[in-house]
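so my prof wants the structure for this chain in the tokens format not the other one, which i didnt know existed until like an hour ago. anyway here's the sequence
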Amino acid sequence: MNIVCLDLEGVLVPEIWIAFSEASGIPELKRTTRDEPDYDKLMKWRLGILKEHGLGLKEIQEVIATIDPLPGAKEFLDELRSLTQVIIISDTFSEFATPLMKKLGWPTIFCNSLEVASDGEITGFKMRIADSKLTTVKALQSIGYDTIASGDSYNDLAMIKASKSGFLFRSTEQIIKDNPELPAFENYDELLDEIKKAL
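here's what i got, hopefully its the right format
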């Protein structure tokens, strides 16, 4: 039995923090897991910048409301879900992801949660589990699933490499160069064809 595990940001929807960086005019917030492999360090740094600028969950959610899935993402996901089970495994937070899941037709997502004060300040974050992408893939394998995984960032590599088949999708030149054994694709049709072959 197969199950496909997909990253969310950069694969199905635009990067939330890049969109927020552009909307808020804070260029430092453009930094993502494509640039920083240590997610804990990245998030603590982001929360420091939000605090410095007096920005909270409300401001980020207002930007997220304007974000649409990447062109072709919903159609790709719909077709994939007609063929096999799909889980989105993301390091984002349910407080960010829910409006995007609505636009994608409510696929299953495993993600994390934010700690938010009564005034809307994001005071911290709670990771669902350590190394969530790799841990989830291994857990699925332990209950009888063969996993097929795709993502674009450093934090996707362990999940991709631990799977029966794994693919980079719209990744960076550096990540592609550093992982020449991983097939890399730029469009949904190519990715879908490869996943179909792996099923």
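also thought this was worth mentioning. The domain at 17-64 is CATH 3.90.1470.10 (thrh gene product, domain 2).
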